[in-house]
Amino acid sequence: MADGSSVPLLRFITCGSVDDGKSTLIGRLLHDSGSLPGDQLAALAGTAARPGTPQGIPDFASLVDGLDAEREQGITIDVAYRFFSSGMRRFIVADCPGHEQYTRNMATGASTADAAVVLVDARKGLLPQTRRHSTIVRLLGLGHIVLAVNKMDLVGWDEARFRGIVADYRALADELGIEAVHAIPLSALYGDNILSPSANTPWFEGRPLLATLEALPARAPARAAPFRLAVQWVNRPHQDFRGVVGTVSAGSVRPGDAVQVLPAGTRATVARVIGPGRDLEQADAGQPVTLVFREHVDASRGDLVVAPDALPVLAARLRADLVWLDETPLLPGNRYLLRVGPRQVDARVARVEHVRDVHAGGTRGADQLALNAIGRVELVLEEPVPMARFDEDRALGAFILIDRATHATAGAGVVVETIVRGAERPCVEASSVGPAERAAAKNQQARCVWFTGLSGAGKSTLANALERHLANAGRHTMLLDGDQVRSGLSKDLGFTAGDRSEQVRRLGEVAKLMVDAGLIVIVSAISPRRADREAVRARFAAGQFIEVFVDASPETCAARDPKGLYAQAQAGRLGSTLGIGGGHEAPEHPELHLVTDAATPGALVEQVLALLRAGPGPAREGMVGAPTSWVDVGHQPP
Questions:
Q1: What phi and psi, each to the nearest 5 degrees, are found at residue 17?
Q2: Chain-centre distance of CA 532, in angstroms?
């Protein structure tokens, strides 16, 4: 069969739960497509006499399971890559392990694939690992799934069983956002519906497996996108030559093109585009090249060369979907090295938004990611890095997290949102009326004043008093109380650590929208986790977020007990609830620290107003940008 370079190539993986028949399926494809050399055919024929093998049928899995441990245990541990071809297509297939402990290997195989064949044992139906692998496949952007319902011979080629499994998987695909599912009933062992339609499934009107694979579209190179090249190496063999080496990940480049090197922002002009052994008139996505600039440009490994009229976002924070691959759980506050392409930067986990439930489906609140968990997290980057949403740019949207001590890969993720420090979010079309214009129309500077502290410390009292003072001065305000928001916007949330983090995130999102509307927003919320509050701060421009720590002794809080929570805790009816009698992480560098044990509310509110009138002091340590201005509450004290 043809295997010339003119025949299009498809990279795909086989995945699913253990013992679903992945290796057998690939072995059967290699054998039936005529892709085996004579020595392998002879060795395969000799496996037919092994004990436990169906009479006369070779052990097709032995063609793929290359490790001795795999042969002995009958499982796949590593990712095995095999090449074969048909008259219409060339294929590279990765046989991915099914065991949960080898999930990292499966993710590795899926990262370079165009499509996935997900196997399901017809006797067992969908299993947790089927769901986990399907989630990873979707996370990595594989839009076409072939659902191979294997071992149909063991259920008597029951059409109803096949239809039921397909319905279950399509429900999972809808939940995950997988658009294209091609379902096939087959037997990898006996070859049914592999190359040709099987007489055992007269009720099946679809194409067999090979014809389905031949028809799948490969992922096209991003030639129409803006030019991108990550610098892998700077080649300087002598003082008269200096070139930056890398692979064009998107777009194209020609001699004479203007480019910009990020993150420094240096502009340059391309003098030469050098391919393997010769100069090129143009290089397109997927081609390795050396670029020589007319100007002397200080570029190094990890820099990004881009078209200057289509600059990527310099992200300071990320929201990302992550597959966790380390035995040590991911926790908020942990630090890792984040690598995107050849670039590496320090990153801190701000919070865990949720984790996917591979057993029941859907997501649930969580405060950590355990080994093999898949969840959404928010990361803070030590310095801005060119990145993009994965669905917009695969090269800039995929990354790994590396353990700083062991240098082992701890997690693999894709970006779902980039957040720019001190700027509006990208991906959201800007209104023709900006936040500054809205605030000016109200004769004020919009700000968020965030009161945090234990229950009973006095947050709500001070927040109400501050709003009354500002309203008397003619200012436009909005008060967001954590308890009130829980009765509406957050009524679906409980009081787990993950739910509390989500409550703070929602409060911050609403506060940001109101600040953009020109309002002075006052938030009163326990918001016990420091990382959650810092994540909210990062949503605002420099100086817009004012954190006020409302502090009182536990005895004072318990004596006030405005909600009766301390009494319930003392009676043992509340459990260990964060923010009651402890568990609140005090701000390290708040804009204002108010101690309420003995002071009157009026005197404390005057301190807040004095701070607002006075303007910023020195930039606080760890603050995201130095404040430039504060809210103007009027020339006359309110």
A1: -80, 165
A2: 18
Q: Which helix (H) or strand (E) holds 277?
A: none
pLDDT band of residue 140 (cuts 50, 70, 90) is confident
Query: In this predicted structure, what is the pLDDT of residue 305?
Result: 93
* Amino acid symbol at 627: P
Q: Which fold has domain 435-614?
A: Rossmann fold (3.40.50)
Each domain of the chain, given as residue ranges in start order, spans 9-215, 228-306, 314-419, 435-614
Q: Let me know: does 95 contact 76? Beta carbons within 8 Å.
A: yes
Please list the alpha-helical segments (H only) found in 94-190: 103-110, 128-139, 159-176
* Over residues 107-132, mean pLDDT: 85
Burial classification of residue 74, based on how many CB atoms lie within 10 Å of its CB (0-12 exposed, 13-18 middle, 19 or more buried): middle
Contact present, 430 and 399 (Cβ < 8 Å):
no
Active site residues: 527
CATH 3.40.50.720 fits 9-215, yes or no: no
Say what angle helices 103-110 and 128-139 make with each other, to 10 degrees.
Answer: 40
- 449, burial (CB in 10 Å: exposed 0-12, middle 13-18, buried 19+): buried
Q: Identify any residues that bridge with 607 across adjacent strands, giving them in sequence order.
A: none
User: Whole-angstrom Cα distance, residue 249 to residue 607?
Assistant: 54
299 vs 151, 340, 386, 554, CA distance in Å? 55, 17, 15, 56
Using alpha carbons, list the distances in angstroms from residue 96 to 22, 80, 513: 8, 7, 45
Which residue matches tokens 């042969």?
71
Mean pLDDT within 127-144: 84
**Residue 169 scores a pLDDT above 80:** yes
Domains 9-215 and 435-614 share a fold: yes
Model pLDDT for residues 264-301, shown as the tens digit of each residue:
888 999 999 999 889 999 999 889 999 999 998 888 88
What is the bridge-based pairing of β-strands 520-524 and 448-452?
parallel
pLDDT in tens, 482-529: 888 888 888 888 777 777 888 898 999 999 999 989 999 999 999 988
Which residues contact residue 37 at a Cβ distance below 8 angstroms, ignoring those fewer than 6 apart? none
Q: Please name which of 537, 544, 627 lies closest in space to residue 587, comparing C-alpha atoms.
A: 537
Q: What is the mean pLDDT of residues 218-247?
A: 84
CATH architecture of 314-419: Beta Barrel (2.40)
Put simply, whether the predicted model's pTM sits higher than 0.70 gets the answer no
Under 8 Å between Cβ of 244 and 268: no
What is the CATH code of the structural domain delimited by 228-306? 2.40.30.10
Q: Is the pLDDT of residue 612 over 60?
A: yes
State the average pLDDT for the chain: 81
* Strand runs labelled E in 263-302: 266-275, 278-279, 283-284, 288-293
pLDDT of 628 reads: 32
Look up residue 330 and give its DSSP letter. Answer: B
Band of the pLDDT at 160, cuts 50, 70, 90?
A: very high
Q: How far is Cα 184 from Cα 417, in angstroms, rounded to an integer?
A: 36
